[in-house]
Structure formats: C-alpha cells, structure tokens
Amino acid sequence: MIMIFNFKKETDVKNKEKNLFQNYLSTHKFKHSKQRKGILEIFLSIDRHLTAEELYRAVKQKYPSVGFATVYRTLKLLCATGLCRELKLESGPARYEHLYGHKHHDHLICTGCGRFVEVIDPEIERLQQKLSKTHGFLPQEHRMELYGICPECRNKNNG
Ligand SMILES: [Zn+2]
Ligand SMILES: [Zn+2]
Ligand SMILES: [Zn+2]
C-alpha cells in the first residue's frame, strides 16, 4: 500500500514539474522540442548535484544526437522555471540540483571526493535571519556551502 502511494506521489510531482516546464516554454515562446522533453526526463530521473557535463553524458546515452549546448541551455531554462537550482561553487564547474518541492537546505562539500551532503540546522537558519535584521535587511534567500574533508576521505588519509 505504502509503496503504491509513494509511487503515485512521485508521479504526480513529476507531472507537475513537466507541466510547469511546458507552461514556461509556452509563455516565453520557446519550442516544445522532443529534445527538451527528453532532457527534462533525464534531469528529473537523477536526483543528485550534477554538473552540466554529467547531465549531458546521461542524456547522450538515450539521445545520442543531443549536443552539449542544448543540454546547457535547457538547464538554464529549468532554472528559470524553478525546477532546478544552480550551485556556483568556489572551484570547479557549477552543479545543478532539483528545486521544485525540495525544502531549503545547505551543503557540506568534500574537497577530496566532491561529495555533497545536504544539511539543515534550524539554529544557523535562525541566526542568519537575526543577522539580516540587525543590518536592516529583509532576508530573501541564502546559500551556505561548507568545504571540508568527509569521514571516508579522512579515513583514507589516515590509513
Ligand atoms: Zn540555510
Ligand atoms: Zn570525501
Ligand atoms: Zn542539495
């Protein structure tokens, strides 16, 4: 029962995401190409912090004729639609993650293996609100990325 329910919910979310993208394309007079739909499908099927290059490689397996530029432009459209969040990092290429229906979170990033850990600390969130208000800012959004060495990489270095 629970599994069926989860599956249904998952499908509903994906359909909503697809509808949002279709609407965005229509509103902004972009073509509803098969390639764009395909790229969206692949993007939705991988819930990680992907680089454009990684998404391109995944797309290429199913749609060999799609070029990198098309994947990159589609990612930008997905960000504009609110389905995708771009993470510009201290070093290395930007990463892309699902945004729609995802709660706010921050990241711990391993500089050894590149792993992303999603974290949320209510205390840190609260302090950021407080800090903004102290300076007369109306808080809108923030990103927090903490770089360090993950437990696995630390173990490797010690052994
Ligand atoms: Zn936060
Ligand atoms: Zn690591
Ligand atoms: Zn994330």
Structure description:
This protein is an alpha+beta fold and 159 residues long. The protein has 2 domains: 2-98, Winged helix-like DNA-binding domain superfamily/Winged helix DNA-binding domain (Arc Repressor Mutant, subunit A, Orthogonal Bundle), CATH 1.10.10; 106-158, Ferric-uptake regulator, C-terminal dimerisarion domain (Dna Ligase, domain 1). Helix content is 53%, strand content 14%. It is built from 6 helices and 6 strands. The protein has helices spanning 2-27, 34-45, 52-62, 68-81, 122-134, 151-158, and strands at 50-51, 84-87, 95-98, 106-110, 116-119, 145-148. Helix 1 (2-27) packs across helix 4 (68-81) and helix 2 (34-45) crosses helix 4. The radius of gyration is 18 Å and the shape is globular. The relative contact order is 0.11. It binds zinc ion (3 copies).
Summary?
This protein has 159 residues and is an alpha+beta fold. The chain is 53% helix and 14% strand.
**Poorly predicted runs:** 1-6
Catalogue the ligands: zinc ion
Structural class by helix and strand composition: alpha+beta
The neighbouring-strand order within the major sheet is 1-3-2
Shape: globular
Instruction: Please indicate the count of domains.
Output: 2
CATH superfamily of the largest domain: Winged helix-like DNA-binding domain superfamily/Winged helix DNA-binding domain
Strand content: 5-15%
Radius of gyration over all CA atoms, rounded: 18 Å
Q: Which fold does the CATH topology of the largest domain refer to? A: Arc Repressor Mutant, subunit A
Number of strands: 6
By CATH reckoning, the class of the largest domain would read: Mainly Alpha
Task: Give the number of helices.
Answer: 6
CATH architecture field of the largest domain: Orthogonal Bundle
Biggest sheet: strands, sense, closure?
A: 3 strands, antiparallel
Give the ordered list of helices and strands: HHEHHEEEEHEH
Terminal residue distance: 46 Å
Average pLDDT score = 91
